[in-house]
Amino acid sequence: MDWSELFFQGWSGIIRTLIVGTLAYVVLVLFVRISGKRTLAKMNAFDLVVTVALGSTLSAVLLQEAIALAEGATALGLLIALQYLVTFLSVRSKDFAKLVRSQPTLLARSGSYCSAALLDQRLTEDEVLSAVRSQGLDDLDQVEAVILESDGSLSVIPRKG
């Protein structure tokens, strides 16, 4: 094994990466602009998976010489088109939306934890309290509700008055 190949295998690979990388980036930006803002929104676990898949596909196009730019652009376009189709269907059909989107979960209400929900969602009381404190509140008694949103964030609704 030639150890020098670990660090440098020739200019052709670097030039290919520069050219294909630039073009693949332009293709991805164009596709995302055409498909709309929702394409890369991390609204739920499904959206996150698509975002990761886009990054993985772009990486493969950049680094694997066996993948031509046209194939990579097709793969990126396919992922974005499928994401568009899923979001299109999910805003028009509640049943389809339930299939691909998780529902918000009530974790605490009126100063008390919902223990079963915490177990189901694999969260601790300390994690909920951390979210409460991040909203400038001292403890759970100051909270009307804490909700685990479909995107994984915690919403804290303070008590009124």
UniProtKB/TrEMBL annotation:
<dbReference type="InterPro" id="IPR007353">
    <property type="entry name" value="DUF421"/>
</dbReference>
<feature type="domain" description="YetF-like N-terminal transmembrane">
    <location>
        <begin position="22"/>
        <end position="89"/>
    </location>
</feature>
<dbReference type="InterPro" id="IPR023090">
    <property type="entry name" value="UPF0702_alpha/beta_dom_sf"/>
</dbReference>
<keyword id="KW-0472">Membrane</keyword>
<dbReference type="Pfam" id="PF04239">
    <property type="entry name" value="DUF421"/>
</dbReference>
<dbReference type="Pfam" id="PF20730">
    <property type="entry name" value="YetF_N"/>
</dbReference>
<protein>
    <submittedName>
        <fullName>Membrane protein</fullName>
    </submittedName>
</protein>
<keyword id="KW-1133">Transmembrane helix</keyword>
<comment type="similarity">
    <text>Belongs to the UPF0702 family.</text>
</comment>
<feature type="transmembrane region" description="Helical">
    <location>
        <begin position="44"/>
        <end position="63"/>
    </location>
</feature>
<dbReference type="InterPro" id="IPR048454">
    <property type="entry name" value="YetF_N"/>
</dbReference>
<feature type="transmembrane region" description="Helical">
    <location>
        <begin position="6"/>
        <end position="32"/>
    </location>
</feature>
<keyword id="KW-0812">Transmembrane</keyword>
<dbReference type="GO" id="GO:0005886">
    <property type="term" value="C:plasma membrane"/>
</dbReference>
<feature type="domain" description="YetF C-terminal">
    <location>
        <begin position="92"/>
        <end position="160"/>
    </location>
</feature>
<keyword id="KW-1003">Cell membrane</keyword>
<feature type="transmembrane region" description="Helical">
    <location>
        <begin position="69"/>
        <end position="91"/>
    </location>
</feature>
